[in-house]
Specification:
single chain, 2 domains, 9-stranded antiparallel sheet, 9 strands, 234 residues, Porin, 12% helix, 2 helices, mainly beta
Amino acid sequence: MKKSLYILLFFITLQGQAQFKGMFGKDPIINLENFDKQKVHWGYFLGFNAYDFKIDYKNTPDVDIAVKSVTGFNVGLVGNLRLHEYIDLRFEPGLYYTQRNLTYSQFTTTLDALREVKSTYIHFPLLVKFSSKRIGNYRPFIVGGASATLNLSSNSKSKDDNLQQRFRVKPWTKNYEVGFGVDFYLEYFKFSPSIRGVFGLGDELIRDNDPNSEWTGNIDALKTRAVFINFTFH
């Protein structure tokens, strides 16, 4: 039984090496040769995110508010419009689940010190993709653009604030984004892993009713920072 298993694994390894060589070797078999000549094509993506907050203070605090990121999940659609041989316009609406934990060290109880900011975002980015010349079955690219984000968990309409353990942020934010990735042309589809940074442009914080609140009184601006790792299939 073991001998048969070893023989099977040996042949699977040989087959995998042959396919890899056929796709990315010295003389690769060119997959999806005319794929990028389409005026419009569609796809979808799955991925992960890490959201953070950039906090600007009115007065230098004794201890900064600690922000801890929790890895989240992304899913969405891709629409691609070919503008030029090396330039594409992309719309990538998606649903992003994430969480950030804010710790205020001046408090002695966890109830006051910890704020779990759970967010469900609908993200609307409009991006320009600049691709290099295709090399065999792969093609590096850079991407950048602007986006608007709707936070379905903002608590913006709540009259309660941090005195009732309710951390509030604005529902809409505007951002700019930059990133890079690689298109891999496989036999039946194009696979594109990418990494992208997102930078919020405006203050998102809704301050507590008390202007001297220990949670929000000294915050001048609260802005989103995030990293997306997406795996796109066309």
